[in-house]
Input
Amino acid sequence: MHQAGGRPAPHGTIRGFEPRDAAAVHRIGADTAHFGDPVEAIIDDRQVFIDVFMRPYTTHCPATCWVAEVEGQVAGYLTGCLDTAAFDPLFRRGLLRAAGRLLAGRYRVGRRTLRAGFGYLRELASRHPRADLAAYPAHLHINLSALFRGQGIGRRLMLAYLDQCRAAGVPGVHLSTSERNAAAVRLYRSLGFDVLHRYPAPYLSTVNRQAVEALIMGLRLA
Output
């Protein structure tokens, strides 16, 4: 089990997120957002990605976020939420605020951002399958800096979060990924996650200009 003060590990310490970690977590998220590569491959201004997909977690769910620290440096993170249904309105409000900033000219906008925006609208409007939130109410996102991959850090982040979910009585956890994230899929499967749904992903297919299949994976905890 994870100890509250953080546990030493061969490749660093897994501990709870602290406000001082926000800048590093946001940077790693943007540096790895496109199948492990920087988000600039699909969005002109990384601040859009940070404001929409990162800040809601570090602002509203800090108690269920985790970081891996190696020699004083944040090497990776897991952002999570135990109650997706309660989190969704917070996420939508953040999305609307970002849309207002976009219209006000506060982000750098080019073809990549416009394509990503169109793809995300397609995703929101689609009727693709979703996880059963009664069975899998919690969800997560996880990313590591390139220098620290393949060292077991992602597994330890996942185990810390799954311990937290079990302690809170959460019956199940889900996540979204793609088979293009082969290493991540192997990690999730090794921890017991199964594929709940697969579908052609409107957003990923739009920004990649080719068909990309998304996976929704889930793990029952009780």
Observations:
- The CA atoms of residues 142 and 177 lie 10 Å apart.
- The chain has one domain: 7-171.
- The chain has a mean pLDDT of 92.
- The longest strand covers residues 73-81.
